[in-house]
Structure prediction request, 482 residues.
Amino acid sequence: MSEQLKSMEKLVGLCKRKGFIFQSSEVYGGINSCYDYGPLGVELKKNIKDLWWKSMVYERNDVEGLDASILMHPRVWEASGHVDGFTDPMIDCRETKNRYREDQLSVYVPKSGEGLMYAFPEGAPESVAKKLKKARVSEEEFDVKSLSDIDVSAYENVVGPDTKKAGTLTEPRMFNLMFKTFMGPVESDANIVFLRPETAQGIYVNFHNVREASRQKLPFGIAQIGKAFRNEITPGNFIFRMREFEQMEMQYFVKPGSDDEFFEYWKAERLKWYERLGINHDKLKFHAHGDGELAHYAKAAFDIEYEFPFGWSEIEGIHNRTDFDLGRHQEYSRKNLKYFDQEAGEKYVPYVVETSTGVDRLMLTTLADAYAEEEERVVMRFKPTIAPMKAAVFPLVKKDGMPEVAHEIVDNLRKHFRVFYDESGAVGRRYRRQDEVGTPYCFTVDTQTLEDGTITVRERDSMAQERISKDQAMNYLLDRVI
Ligand code: GAP
Prediction:
């Protein structure tokens, strides 16, 4: 990511202007936390998913694909622990009606132990600075704590993040993040079904189906890409935290005892994959979950984090889920989910190592990482493999047979690639338009083309130009953008 991208505003503006991402239902004023992907957004998204699928399924012998249903039997979510455990502590402000996650609020607490406390959203202490100035107190007089460390009886002295008054925050209440709906025409409790909050459970309940159909032996994995839904209390940061999003998850089934080794293996594999996505290595790091952070199913967990303009944040989770999920489904469904290990001559419930990432978060990662401002242009430096348009083809002028030759080239390239034809405006401006959407190559048909059949290729990052035969355009791209 360029140094110039200090805030998300520029990126959000570019995404809308160029057709990557739009606010959902914008003509009605939009709906919070839901986004639509425009013509270039769908291409980028598809390329990210294809790259993941290629590395997870096509390039391996031990991972099979699956596309499970979003609506599942409601008992699935009891067994998985989501009905009881998939909750966040929610706090309301009685004055502003704003809603916060308790674990995402920090608070300035007076060192003296007396006086008002000031709550603020994690990572944004500047929002309190003004209030402290007005109250004529300095930051040095305070300690910063997590709001969850403050006893609720002391909330009457806490000034909420968006108010000037103390005592407006409610006690935290646990809030289940699953969306509910009804199956069939009768809206009764007996007909409640949930929109899946993770794709993983569709994989666990199909463990034996996939294993038997594909004749896989342990260790092996099942990969899936699909939508997930969470009624997040505080969605935000553009497409970082949404209520409807897409996950790419892979569950790797292993013999108990070999789980630690495979956990390390998948951590390394997944970090390596981000190089293929073209992400700057210095902007990636691991974050190990401490005991308090672990999800209800995990024995160990590492996040891969990316340094966004709003700070380091999780883009992928790698979890050792033990035999928790298969064990619980076995208990709740009363079906045998054990694996018979012929080599060892024993039966056991496999352990699971999971890799789980969000497509939308990777969209934001690739967009933020690609953004660069130069003296005369904004350029999206996507890796050619994921660039939405692989090439643009221009006739230098709209006459002398040049458009016809350019169309011929485009029609040929379209058999394999998303390419763009543009004949309007000066060539320099046409290059700039392609730079801004990250098109790696521009082919120009000019007078010389009509004489010797060669065209100019201009490379996006170096802006260097060379001539190749127009018949070589396809091979040129095949060598560089796949
Ligand atoms: N099956 C395990 C699981 O779902 P998670 O850490 O809750 O684990 C995995 O989510 C990934 O899904 C995250 O790293 C993130 O990329 C994506 N994700 C989770 N919640 C999201 C949200 N509200 N909006 C966008 N992406 C989200």
Observations:
- The chain has three domains: 41-86+179-371, 91-173, 389-481.
- The pocket of glycyl-adenosine-5'-phosphate is lined by residues 198, 200, 230, 232, 241-242, 245, 247, 249, 314-317, 354, 356-358, 360-361 (CB under 6 Å).
- Residues 389-481 form a domain with the Rossmann fold fold (CATH 3.40.50.800).
- The radius of gyration is 26 Å.
